[in-house]
Amino acid sequence: MLDMGFINDIRKIMVHLPMTRQNLFFSATMADSIMELANTILKKPISIEVTPNSSTVETIDQSLYTVTKSDKKELLLHLLRNPEIKTAIVFSKTKHGANKIEKILADAGIPSAAIHGNKSQAARQNALQSIKDGKIRILVATDVAARGIDIDLLSHVIIYDVPLEPESYVHRI
Predict the structure, then answer these.
(1) Minimal CB count within 10 Å: which of 27, 94, 136, 154?
(2) Domain annotation for the chain: domains and CATH numbers
(3) For residue 77, what are the CA distances in angstroms to 15, 74, 81, 101, 152?
(4) From the CB of residue 157, how many other CB atoms can be counted at a distance below 10 Å?
């Protein structure tokens, strides 16, 4: 939440909490800028690291396709026509981009749904349930969705727009 601009909301909540308390933060990654921000609201913080920063899971196969911007759409459609891609999340950098990708997929007859910060909680939950139930194959998401989503049997993650920070990449995959 600190990474997504909710610091003012967190500060509003904290004034209603007891002065003596324990705060716990959990994250697969912690950028230095976010740690600095967290330190403004923490007293005597202790950090426990399980793996090095920005590390990816070794069991995940990763591929890179170098393509011009004008060919990204066609490459995405080509990849999604592969029957080995049973279910996938396609990551976009922006909400507008996620909606645009969802429309591209719909126009191509590929069942999908977009989730991002402009969608209601109910719409996001419906989209997640739809992919879990097999009603759609593709979930199009922004980085809001990269944190905390767990979909069993997800076969692929496609990063349509490369994130600006390595930590976002780790959360996505």
Answers:
(1) 94
(2) 1-53 (no CATH), 69-172 (3.40.50.300)
(3) 49, 5, 6, 10, 23
(4) 16
d(CA 44, CA 161) in angstroms, rounded, equals 38
pLDDT in tens, the chain (173 residues): 666 667 788 778 888 988 888 877 777 667 777 777 778 778 888 777 765 555 566 778 888 899 999 999 999 999 999 999 999 999 998 999 999 999 999 999 999 999 988 888 899 889 989 998 999 999 999 887 656 677 777 889 999 988 777 667 666 77
- How far apart are the C-alpha atoms of 144 and 1, rounded to whole Å? 9
Cβ count within 10 A of residue 117: 13
Amino acid at the residue 125: Q
User: In this structure, which long-range contacts are made by residues 12-15, counting pairs with CB atoms below 8 Å and at least 24 apart in sequence?
Assistant: 14/41
CA atoms within 13 A on the CB side of 11: 9
* Per-residue three-class SS string for 88-128: EEEECCCHHHHHHHHHHHHHCCCCEEEECCCCCHHHHHHHH
Cβ–Cβ under 8 Å, residues 115 and 128? yes
Lookup: tokens for 38: 């967290």
